[in-house]
Amino acid sequence: MNQDKQKKTQAATRSFHELKLDPAILEVLDRLKFTQPTPIQAQAIPDVLAGEDMIGIAQTGTGKTLAFGLPMLQRFVKSGGRGGRGLVLLPTRELAVQVAGGIHDLGKHTGLRVVPVYGGQPIDRQFRALKAGAHIVVGTPGRLIDHLRRGSISLDTVTFCVLDEADEMLALGFLEEVEEILGALPAERQTAFFSATMPPRIEALTKRFLNSPELIEIGSKTRTVDAVGQTYYEVPKGKKPEALARVLDMETPGPTIVFCRTRLETTGLAETLRLRGYNAEALNGEMSQNDRDRVLRRFKSGQADLLIATDVAARGLDIETVTHVINYDIPWDVEQYIHRIGRTGRAGRSGDAITLVESNERRKLKFIERATGVRMKLARIPTAADIAERRREALQDALREAVQADDHPAEMEMGEELSEEFNTTEIAAAALHLLWQNLHTAQDDTADYSADHEQPESGMTRLFIGLGKQDGLRPGELVAVIAGQCDIPGKSIGAIDILDRSTFVEVPSEIGPKAIEVLRRARLRGRKASVDVATPRRK
After folding, report:
1. Among 244, 247, 252, which residue's Cα sits nearest to residue 394?
2. Are residue 232 and residue 378 in the same domain, yes or no?
3. Greater model confidence, 471 or 194
4. 446 falls in which pLDDT band (50, 70, 90)?
5. Residue 26 is part of which domain span?
6. Domain for residue 222, yes or no?
7. Are 288 and 298 in contact (CB under 8 A)?
8. Is 13 helix (H, G, I), strand (E, B) or coil?
């Protein structure tokens, strides 16, 4: 390695506009609210644009995707799509999907075609995508080797290859596959390695496959927010909605942002939480500006307690009063994690970041802990008894405030009258009992709307719909929507029970999933409703 070409961290570049990027690319960055490049981006982008081979030593989450993704996009734009093929190698399918999605978002208005190839996805789907043409292929070593041996991909036209998370890739045992792939590339090409560390095996690869590379080294540091407490809960697979509800009940947070991975997850989770009695609003990139403004107004004014958001939709939000950030889906990218939790603990306030982790996501959690140098606190999912105790404590605090306020003369008069017959402690206990019942029976009913006493007939599935008589819903409307869009005769639809605030309808089990999808998309009485399979009510 040519040590004369080594670079250290320099003064931060203030804007992407200083990096000589094409105006069309700068417009995309402005739209996505990327303003100031990170140190690795500021130093790597000019070298890559100049055609240099490069080694970037930087922690995971420092923004390396843009460091190589923007030059790839620039090459595509400048050449009118004839600049050869780009190749990005990553150690895991999660990272491959994430990086492919990131590059696609940057170039989706330019005609750039990005194809991810990784294990766990049907290979025939990848055959079709590759045959249709790919300007950039993002893949894992094992699946890429599979395509090479099947002849479904050729590396002859690759002009720029990136090896990302190189140390992680070799730690997972992909050395031979990486060597085979790099050896199959054309001699005339540009190559860049990105890695958090530089172990001897990676240094040996750079000497063998890179041509007098620039070395950029970004010093590592702990980059999470000091004022934010970081906790995680281990959640059984498929139980995140229930776990989230219990955590919210226990934490009783102020304004809270819950981060999801996809637009569909934001809308589905917001519906689920509203059904449980929370004032939740979804925020995602598919919303119109008017809808986005309406949701943010409700959240800032306190009309909505929970904002269920994607990362892209939440970019640029600056709401000082947010008390909690919850990672419903744990991000793989550390920079994304840091951006998320930075939404709380602002303006001198403290904040809390909570992450829900299923067993197959523990590796992601450890990855984030290792990269940030912060060990998160493990907490136990609250039980019903824990939540009841927390509610009693909250009620006791509210009562103390009410007593100190001394602003209830009519109630004082009633208490004095009753004290002639009963002990004052007994009166207070009875009043608290009535208050407790009124407060929490309603909450429990709301959380259990989808539960049902009835069992469907054999071969039928019973569906719950979150609209009822109070909304003006009629059986004929349901039959028309289900029969018309699921292509079944109306008489095959079973029992329909329309209650005050909810409805249950039985449909043939074979069309159950399609009926749910159809009803979720439909506007019933001018509204969209939450729809799910009805669950048997607990006895």
Report:
1. 252
2. yes
3. 194
4. very low
5. 3-217
6. no
7. no
8. coil
